[in-house]
Amino acid sequence: xxxxxxxxxxxxxxxxxxxxxxxxxxxxxxxxxxxxxxxxxxxxxxxxxxxxxxxxxxxxxxxxxxxxxxxxxxxxxxxxxxxxxxxxxxxxxxxxxxxxxxxxxxxxxxxxxxxxxxxxxxxxxxxxxxxxxxxxxxxxxxxxxxxxxxxxxxxxxxxxxxxxxxxxxxxxxxxxxxxxxxxxxxxxxxxxxxxxxxxxxxxxxxxxxxxxxxxx
Length: 216
What we know:
Layout: H1 2-47, E1 61-64, E2 68-72, E3 79-80, E4 85-86, E5 99-105, E6 115-118, E7 121-125, E8 127-135, E9 161-169, E10 183-185, E11 191-194, E12 202-210
Antiparallel strand pairs: 1-2, 2-5, 3-4, 5-6, 6-7, 8-9, 9-12, 10-11
């Protein structure tokens, strides 16, 4: 009986370790897929900020905050035909996906920001931080400073590049026997988030976007 109990304990210990390893891998894969998808869509749309093929003027970044960005771009016209097909750019920003806002938001109403929001819709959950840095066109580029968390409207026209840093987290606590007190920084070396001592695994993803239409 003693030998059987020891064998069962060893088998259970092995099963538990394998289950934890599988859970860690699955949750980590979900987190990485989540953060990469969010970055892909933001990068693609922010790169086109200020697109103005008809030289109407006035299109571009309309609000630049530490945790949010709003911008306009003329990239399509109204849907035509059946089935509906987007028409070419038409000289305004009144069509879908032409007036866009990304923000760090609260998805469940608990008072804590935990998602990336696009025009009122959640595009990525389990987000610990969304951080923006704005750079001018100098060589090397200068960081445009915030005033009260936003760049003053008079300075928006100086923006040529946008640096995005996202800190994502797993949905469940995965760190066994340790806690997350890591410090997360953006590309400028500025601290943007500190692990609160929980058992949640986190990843940081950052990129620099050169907005090809803002200098035109």
